[in-house]
User: Which sequence fits this backbone?
């Protein structure tokens, strides 16, 4: 049965939670309104439960789950920082939460002002000219950015460009996005320190280059010192440069992708700007552009005319739309509140994110391999390579053993170019005591790998469930409840 | 060595081929399945498809990764191992026997010269 | 500093451990001078929490919202009732502040909730499997279009003109880069022209994208359409209103290959257009082409049932450029809202919500049809939304309704100019010759009272 039975397994015919009033209008018979062959014959077998059962069910489920609100969550590249509760209040203000997307502009001036104002703030942070909030997540932002680049080249009759260059250290969404937009992905090698091999790049760029996609700092947590040269090389070959903003938490107030030479950027509001991850979304992936890409932005664009805000649909060169309406507005409200709570002190956010990651690295370097011996930025990449060679304990085992310490493990086996990788991003919202607890646990595991490897290999022991059979899940897929499994 | 049978030919993409008359039986090597981990799914081509040496014909998926499959020789696909649909783990358990993936009508036996023999393949896997 | 819990003493100790005298050294070691920002960020000064809330409330007060005005707007987002327990569950920190369940042993809450969501979507739609969510109905439809192209290998796709125009635009944007030709199938009145569909559905076409109830609110003849699409081995993609499935036949039962939907009506606030919920469900045989995350049941090493993300090899973090899609973060918390909603309303409740919505809409239609100067745009069956031809422009109607504290209707005239045709003919519903007419849709949910509907009709009656 499992720890918590499924809703369906608890269902009892006749139970109800929420009820509704009887119709207060003269009714029409269903058979008169709907053709017989379109009327549902068998009702959907939804579970029947009382409200207390429903609330207990989900409360019990939540208690099986780890979140930032529970404890440390150093998942590299995800920026699991504290999600301020005042932002939840903000998003629920009725004037925001209860507005319909198709209300006339004059009835939602508050919403449009919020979008327009946040746009200008995030442009200041990133060094871009305009920004759209339509993409619902980072990956959708990436697609938007690449489509903008495609539109730019097409508008100039530059139709031979069918390649997008992606570093081999890149997050998987980058090549997936380029392929979705119809481009051929050309990888460029990273040097041992994770930076792009500039000489290799020079060989690869050419008349077929539409764009380079890059994040800086890279997925190794290191700032690429040649970034300006890199963007110049791509520009000289006629390509444009796309900045994956997943790692922006490292550089706010210190550097801006616009100043590094990028033409288009995406941000992850659910990373850098504290909006909650929700177990896997909703996020928001706004896209910022320099002036030459502005004509191609998705419609509609929020414009200020005098002291009124309007939605501008009259943009003949627009790439079109990515979202049914205007994007994840409720998420954007939270980001607006976050920026207002900090102002220029966003720089201190990055300052402390970098401090924390370097402290973790400094204390763990004696126990786990450093990929590159350099001060990192907001995340550090360690490796269990030596540990594996000497004890047979792999990164996966370290991660599973960490679960018994009540801490979410770092990102494992990413980036792909690092063997037995552990990517640790503490974020700025953790204090030294929390970091020390994590570090001590990592050291304990390192020692246990030698003294009691079986205990590490068989971890976790204290979690609600033990190691789960993922091979079975994939070989014999059970992806939904069936009342009478055949 | 049991892991690199002497009577087979090998590609650098870690496929093997056993020629029985004019028929070539194709699978992936012990080394490949060891690298992949638990195989969960195999995408196989349609019977009748014509393949060229080196052409991608399918995909093998494990829990954590996925690999393209490339034909070690040219020929028409005459049979695929349908047992793998319900028991992909056969590839892990018996990669050279029950875990075979497809059979082709070898179009040009001289192509096999392009492949590695057991010793050369074993050396190749040790290069890392 | 607001959310940074590091004291000066701790900072000093940490810097010592790292071996630097200031954090500036860490940045200087990474960022070359040529790209350093050498001035403070030009942002307004930080506000305290009190000031922040005050400012936000002032901003929001410039808006009009659906607790103050009766909302008859539809067009893909609906003012359905959100039970209180939904938000209570969403605000639990373990759900709200978790990320993707990459470590399943400490993510069983999220994973089981996803499995339950997937199961509920299959029950609702009559399909075999569902993913863990997509961004919204529009992008779900675009991803379904991608599935059709990949599965059939055909590069043409039919799109019904009665599909939401914004959805069609999103599909176009997604398909542009991959060289897929989208062909629009015209309408006959307010529903799809079956003769034209038959003519356009050839062996070169991968399939059809259809919406029912359609953008104007009307029910399409899905069984006839399915036959025409399958006759040429095309795939049949249907976009539905999940609330409607409390009364209307499930697409799985009339031969749909892929079902998509906008799940906003299932316990999700209007929130000016997002975050919403993209539902995507399909048949077993398309399982490996389906984009997005999927949770599956399995056992742990203690023999207990548990849940994991599965079939991840299709996804971007493994498959990279050969992935089924690039989607990573989806709408997990919103899918949770829909799961809680369906558990709260249950089998009977969904049927009641659907029936109430239908009854209110049909009552309103009867009354509006009797208003001089007004007429219904079509006589096809409809669910909770329908189109009317007005004796004034849509903008004028909207303005008048605002005076009565009513939000409505959606102007569909620009997207469907053919519906205005009859008005100029001077029939009973056209008003004086030369009148600028408008076409609008009005939507009705279980929240709209008879009094509000009567007020709407009275206000419309004042428009000449």
Assistant:
């Amino acid at each position: 049965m499992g720890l918590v039975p499924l809703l369906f397994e608890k269902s009892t015919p006749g139970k109800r939670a929420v009820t509704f009033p009887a119709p207060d209008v003269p009714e029409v018979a269903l058979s008169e309104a709907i053709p017989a062959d379109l009327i549902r014959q068998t009702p959907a077998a939804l579970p029947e439960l009382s409200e207390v059962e429903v609330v207990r069910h989900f409360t019990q489920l939540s208690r099986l789950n780890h979140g930032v609100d529970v404890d440390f969550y150093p998942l590299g590249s995800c920026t699991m920082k504290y999600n301020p509760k005042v932002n939840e209040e903000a998003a629920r203000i009725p004037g925001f939460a209860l507005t319909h997307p198709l209300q006339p502009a004059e009835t939602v001036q508050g919403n449009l002002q919020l979008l327009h104002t946040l746009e200008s703030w995030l442009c200041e942070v990133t060094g871009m000219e305009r920004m759209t909030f339509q993409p619902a997540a980072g990956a959708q932002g990436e697609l938007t950015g690449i489509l903008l680049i495609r539109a730019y080249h097409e508008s100039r009759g530059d139709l031979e460009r069918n390649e997008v260059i992606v570093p081999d250290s890149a997050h998987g969404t980058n090549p997936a996005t380029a392929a979705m937009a119809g481009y051929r992905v050309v990888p460029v090698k990273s040097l041992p320190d994770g930076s792009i091999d500039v000489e290799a790049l020079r060989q690869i760029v050419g008349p077929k280059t539409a764009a380079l996609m890059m994040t800086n700092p890279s997925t190794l947590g290191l700032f690429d010192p040649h970034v300006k040269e890199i963007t110049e090389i791509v520009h000289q070959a006629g390509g444009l440069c796309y900045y994956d903003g997943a790692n922006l938490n490292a550089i706010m107030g210190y550097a801006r992708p616009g100043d590094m030479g990028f033409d288009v950027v995406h941000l992850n509001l659910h990373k850098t700007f504290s909006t909650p991850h929700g177990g896997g979304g909703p996020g928001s992936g706004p896209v910022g552009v320099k002036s030459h890409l502005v004509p191609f932005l998705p419609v509609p664009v929020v414009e200020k005319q005098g002291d009124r805000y309007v939605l501008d649909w009259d943009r003949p060169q627009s790439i079109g739309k990515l979202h049914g309406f205007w994007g994840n507005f409720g998420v954007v409200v939270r980001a607006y509140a976050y920026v207002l709570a900090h102002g220029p002190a966003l720089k201190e956010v990055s300052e402390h994110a970098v401090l924390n990651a370097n402290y973790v690295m400094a204390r763990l370097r004696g126990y786990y391999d450093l990929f590159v011996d350099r001060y990192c930025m907001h995340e550090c990449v360690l490796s269990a390579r030596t540990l594996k060679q000497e004890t047979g304990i792999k990164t996966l085992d370290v991660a599973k053993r960490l679960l018994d310490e009540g801490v979410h493990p770092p990102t494992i086996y990413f980036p792909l170019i690092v063997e037995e990788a552990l990517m640790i991003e503490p974020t700025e919202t953790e204090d030294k005591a929390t970091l020390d607890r994590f570090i001590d646990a990592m050291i304990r595991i390192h020692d246990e790998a030698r003294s009691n490897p079986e205990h590490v290999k068989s971890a976790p022991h204290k979690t609600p469930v033990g190691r789960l059979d993922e091979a079975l899940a994939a070989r014999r897929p059970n992806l939904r409840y069936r009342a009478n499994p055949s | 060595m049991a892991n690199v049978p002497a009577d087979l030919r090998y590609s650098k993409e870690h496929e093997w081929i056993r020629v029985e008359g004019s028929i070539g039986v194709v699978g992936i090597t012990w080394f490949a399945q060891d690298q992949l981990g638990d195989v969960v799914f195999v995408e196989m081509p349609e019977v009748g498809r014509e393949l060229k040496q080196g052409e991608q014909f399918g995909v093998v998926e494990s829990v954590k990764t996925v690999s393209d499959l490339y034909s070690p020789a040219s020929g028409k696909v005459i049979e695929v191992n349908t047992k793998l649909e319900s028991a992909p783990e056969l590839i892990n358990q018996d990669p050279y026997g029950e875990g075979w993936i497809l059979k082709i009508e070898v179009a040009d036996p001289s192509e096999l010269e392009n492949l590695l023999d057991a010793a050369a393949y074993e050396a190749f896997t040790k290069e890392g | 500093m607001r959310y940074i819990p590091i004291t000066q003493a701790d900072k000093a100790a940490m810097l010592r451990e790292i071996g630097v005298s200031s954090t500036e050294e860490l940045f200087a070691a990474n960022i070359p001078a040529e790209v350093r920002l050498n001035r403070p960020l030009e942002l307004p000064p930080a506000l305290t929490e009190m000031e922040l809330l005050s400012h936000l409330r002032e901003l929001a007060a410039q808006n009009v919202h659906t607790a103050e005005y009766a909302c008859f707007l539809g067009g893909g987002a609906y003012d359905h009732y959100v039970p209180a327990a939904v938000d209570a569950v969403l605000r639990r920190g373990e759900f709200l502040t978790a990320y993707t369940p990459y470590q399943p042993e400490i993510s069983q809450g999220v994973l089981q909730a996803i499995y339950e969501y997937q199961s509920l979507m299959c029950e609702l739609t009559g399909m075999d499997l569902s993913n863990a969510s997509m961004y919204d109905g529009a992008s779900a439809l675009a991803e379904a279009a991608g599935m059709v192209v990949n599965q059939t290998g055909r590069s043409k796709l039919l799109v019904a003109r009665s599909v939401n125009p914004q959805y069609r635009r999103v599909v176009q944007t997604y398909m542009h880069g991959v060289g897929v030709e989208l062909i629009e199938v015209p309408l006959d009145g307010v529903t799809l022209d079956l003769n034209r569909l038959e003519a356009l559905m050839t062996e070169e076409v991968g399939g059809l994208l259809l919406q029912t109830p359609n953008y104007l609110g009307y029910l399409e003849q899905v069984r006839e359409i399915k036959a025409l699409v399958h006759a040429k081995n095309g795939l049949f993609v249907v976009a539905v209103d999940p609330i409607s499935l409390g009364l209307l036949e499930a697409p799985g039962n009339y031969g749909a290959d892929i079902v998509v939907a906008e799940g906003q009506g299932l316990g999700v606030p209007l929130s000016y257009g997002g975050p919403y919920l993209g539902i995507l469900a399909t048949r077993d045989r398309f399982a490996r082409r389906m984009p997005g995350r999927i949770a599956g049941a399995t056992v742990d090493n203690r023999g207990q049932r548990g849940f994991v993300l599965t079939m991840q090899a299709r996804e971007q973090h493994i498959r990279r450029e050969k992935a089924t899609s690039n989607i990573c973060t989806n709408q997990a918390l919103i899918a949770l809202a829909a799961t809680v909603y369906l558990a709260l309303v249950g089998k009977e409740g969904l049927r009641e919500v659907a029936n109430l919505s239908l009854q209110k809409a049909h009552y309103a239609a009867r009354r509006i049809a009797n208003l001089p100067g007004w007429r219904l745009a079509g006589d096809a069956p409809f669910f909770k939304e329908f189109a009317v031809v007005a004796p004034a422009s849509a903008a004028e109607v909207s303005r008048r309704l605002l005076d009565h504290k009513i939000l409505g209707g959606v102007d569909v005239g620009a997207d469907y100019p053919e519906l205005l045709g009859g008005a100029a003919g001077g029939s009973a519903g056209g008003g004086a010759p030369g009148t600028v007419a408008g076409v609008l849709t009005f939507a009705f949910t279980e929240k709209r009272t008879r009094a509000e509907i009567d007020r709407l009709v009275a206000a419309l009656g004042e428009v000449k």
About this structure: The interface with chain A takes residues 37-38, 40-41, 61-64, 88-89 of chain B (CB under 8 Å). Chain B has four helices and nine strands.
